[in-house]
């Protein structure tokens, strides 16, 4: 479904809540702009290998932080080797990667919103806890051109579990925390961002997002 979005507060210093207008909309990638490929891909691997999907996903998700792969501290092969050692799963790196990457499908309704925001003068950016896979996803289905900036934990060497990343993004963009609207499907990330002074939306679905963003910017 395509949104017919018109930003009626363009040129105003205030949003529809009466607060001073934000300048930046900062989006998470997986689970917001695209389907969540990491979680669903890992669960698919577990099912095919006869392992418990929830347990396998939890171990895999923890290891991507513990190994340092999420911040560029090790390469992909080291991550998969750690996972094979921890879970006993059999398979090669290419097989595992493909199960994940093919599930990151861009949400057309979200890219429509991004285009409308950008054309109306807002800075639009990504802040993602991702590995070098984000670069590969962009090569497969280009999305960077929608955005003014892409911040990726793999290159920043820091994740959203570290609250200081939000201040880092403010410094990089040259804006105050209250000038950023942050959108993420992870509630803990949303809480960390709001504690740093960001305004935020906890993303649950594209439909609910459209309702919630209307409390900040009138769209129709």
CATH-assigned fold name of the largest domain: Rossmann fold
Shape: globular
How much is the radius of gyration in Å? 18 Å
**Oligomer class:** single chain
CATH superfamily annotation of the largest domain:
HAD superfamily/HAD-like
How many separate domains make up the residues?
2
Biggest pleated sheet? 5 strands, parallel
Listing every helix as H and every strand as E from the N terminus to the C terminus, the arrangement reads EHHHHHEHEHHEHEH
Approximate helicity band: 40-55%
The number of distinct β-strands equals: 5
Q: How far is the N terminus from the C terminus?
A: 14 Å
Strand order of the largest sheet: 3-2-1-4-5
Instruction: Output mean pLDDT.
Output: 91
Which stretches are poorly predicted, pLDDT < 50 over at least 5 residues? Answer: 1-14
Architecture of the largest domain in CATH? 3-Layer(aba) Sandwich
Which band does the percent of strand residues land in? 5-15%
Describe, in short, the structure shown.
The chain contains 10 helices and 5 strands. The protein has 220 residues and is α/β, with parallel strands linked by helices. It folds into 2 domains: 24-35 and 106-213, Rossmann fold (3-Layer(aba) Sandwich), CATH 3.40.50.1000; 37-101.
């Amino acid at each position: 479904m395509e949104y017919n979005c018109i930003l009626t507060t363009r040129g105003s210093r205030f949003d529809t809540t009466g607060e001073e207008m934000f300048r930046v909309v900062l989006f998470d990638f997986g689970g917001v702009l695209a389907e969540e490929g990491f979680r669903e891909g890992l669960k698919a691997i577990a099912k095919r290998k006869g392992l418990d999907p929830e347990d396998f996903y939890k171990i895999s998700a923890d290891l991507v932080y513990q190994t340092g792969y999420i911040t560029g501290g090790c390469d992909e092969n080291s991550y998969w080797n750690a996972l094979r050692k921890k879970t006993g799963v059999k398979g090669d790196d290419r097989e595992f990667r493909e199960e994940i990457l093919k599930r990151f499908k861009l949400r057309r309704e979200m890219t429509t919103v991004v285009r409308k925001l950008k054309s109306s003068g807002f800075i639009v950016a990504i802040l993602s806890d991702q590995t070098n896979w984000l670069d590969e996803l962009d090569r497969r289905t280009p999305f960077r051109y929608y955005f003014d900036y892409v911040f990726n934990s793999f290159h920043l060497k820091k994740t959203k579990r570290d609250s200081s990343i939000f201040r880092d993004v403010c410094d990089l963009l040259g804006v105050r925390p209250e000038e950023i609207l942050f959108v993420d499907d992870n509630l803990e990330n949303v809480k960390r961002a709001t504690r740093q002074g960001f305004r935020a939306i906890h993303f649950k679905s594209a439909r609910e997002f459209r309702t919630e963003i209307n409390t900040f910017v009138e769209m129709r």
